[in-house]
Write a structure and sequence with these properties.
- There is one protein chain.
- With about 240 residues, the protein is α+β, with helices and mostly antiparallel strands.
- Helices cover about 40% and strands about 10% of the residues.
- It has helices at about 15-25, 30-45, 60-70, 90-110, 120-125, 145-150, 155-160, 170-175, 205-210, 235-240; strands spanning about 80-85, 110-115, 130-135, 135-145, 215, 220.
- The strands form 2 sheets. A 4-stranded antiparallel sheet has the order 3-4-6-5.
- A hairpin with a 5-residue loop joins strand 5 and strand 6.
């Protein structure tokens, strides 16, 4: 696991050796010397100097602390890592560096990431396959390029339309998707489709019948009664106009 907040996810009373080596200690992997060598190796991999082993988290910047959290995740050679908003607390340049680091680690250790984020640009850059969620449920699953070029769920289209366009001409031609109302309470969700109170394409069926997450012939999955009938605009299509 890579946690969102590098300030609260690192124990301030533990050194880097203790923080990064903790998974190995808990699972009884290696001697003290082997743990020290492994931690020094992981710190080097994420761009931190091995001589930082005896330092505490307060001695590092936010970006460096996030790298400490990233170094801890592959300590036991996992095949799967969940990254919960792993760069959201960082400024743009540091976030870009850490994203590149995550991709390097993925190649080096053969990792699979579950990358959780609200940043669609980051998703497009790092993900091979995307699952779009609304009120805790998957609305659509598709390969990255397919999703950005042609979304099948109205909520996905609305998310892409909300992303600011850096080109003013693109802003003038980009289709806007007006959403009404507020996000529903997840503890008391609406009947039928969870998105129907805000969906501009909703019909009577949407308010009474909950759609299943169904697979389409293309291999994509979508939770919408009318996904086969709607013609939605994706981010790639909007940028090309």
């Amino acid at each position: 696991m890579i946690f969102q907040d590098p300030y609260s996810s690192l124990n301030p009373r533990m050194t880097l050796l203790e923080l990064v080596g903790e998974p190995m200690v808990i699972h009884g992997v290696g001697t003290q010397a082997q743990i020290r060598d492994r931690v020094a190796e992981l710190l080097s991999v994420v761009g931190l100097r091995p001589e930082f082993l005896t330092r505490y988290p307060h001695a590092f910047s936010g970006g460096q602390r996030q790298r400490i959290g990233i170094a801890r995740a592959p300590a036991l050679n996992p095949s799967f890592i969940a990254a919960d908003e792993a760069v959201s607390a960082l400024d743009v340049s540091v976030a870009a560096q850490n994203i590149n680091l995550l991709q390097d680690l993925q190649e080096q250790f053969g990792l699979t990431y579950l990358f959780i984020t609200h940043d669609l640009g980051m998703v497009e850059h790092i993900a091979d396959r995307i699952g779009v969620m609304y009120l805790g449920r998957i609305m659509e699953i598709a390969p990255t390029h397919d999703l950005f070029s042609k979304p099948l769920h109205p909520y996905t289209e609305a998310l892409m339309a909300a992303v600011p366009q850096p080109d003013p001409r693109g802003n003038r031609t980009c289709k806007r998707v007006p959403l009404k109302g507020e996000i529903a309470n997840a503890a008391n969700p609406p009947s039928g489709c969870l998105f129907h109170p805000r969906c501009p394409y909703a019909q009577d069926r949407c308010s009474s019948e909950q759609p299943a997450l169904r697979a389409l012939p293309s291999g994509r999955q979508v939770r919408c009664h009318f996904a086969d009938e709607l013609s939605l605009t994706g981010a790639v299509a909007a940028a090309q106009r």
